[in-house]
Amino acid sequence: MALAHPHVFIDAGVTLIVDDAGKVEAVEVTWRYDELYTLILLQDYGLDPDFDETLTEEEVAETLGFDLNWNSGFDGGLHLYRGATELALGRPEAVSLELRADGRMETVHRRPVTGDPGGEDQIEAQVYDEAFYVAFEATLPSGISGAGDCVPELVRADLDAAYERLQVELAAIGGAVAAEDNFPPVGAYFADRLVFQCVR
User: Fold this and answer.
1) Which residues have a Cβ under 8 Å from the Cβ of 73 and sit 6 or more positions away?
2) Dihedrals phi, psi of 38, to nearest 5 degrees
């Protein structure tokens, strides 16, 4: 029953926005929802009633930012590090919303970044839901705004190890039945890493 998690699947991408000194000022995050959840969103928000896979300007304006009303149990899922220092992220601002030709909803939001010390340490980014209700994969294009040659290394999560740790966590709380109302915070185990070596 624990394998019913996750419920939503999102492909993610991260674009760093840096100043002239190479310090990160902001980050844009792309979320591309799976086909099934996209259909749920279209129905819930009354979008694309003519099924032409195109949203009108009015539909976009009314719906933009729908996925940024995070509750206390979810902080947006983005974790950004300069070396061992986790960088502080501000509140998100919606940038765009699109219904793609492949039938998947894609949104982009931007968050300010404060406290980047700069220096020689690499930047690492992860996007995950600690509760593992949403499964993120960092498979969309990522990079640095204005630096097309800076492509981060994608380090995929070790899923075998992650599921082994999940089983340990489930056993600790009494098994899968107990997890129905108390699913352990295991999202980080399943998180990909984006390693930016060229932010210096």
Assistant:
1) 131
2) -60, -45
pLDDT digits (tens, 9 = 90+) for 10-60: 999 999 999 988 899 999 999 999 999 999 999 999 999 988 889 999 999
Beta strands in 52-160 (DSSP E): 78-82, 85-86, 88-89, 93-99, 105-114, 123-127, 134-137, 143-144, 153-155
Specify the pLDDT at position 2: 45
- Tell me how many degrees the CA angle 196-113-121 measures, rounded to the nearest 5: 35
Domain spans of the chain, in order of start: 2-157+190-196
**What's the CATH number for 2-157+190-196?**
2.70.170
Confidence of residue 149 (pLDDT cuts 50, 70, 90): confident
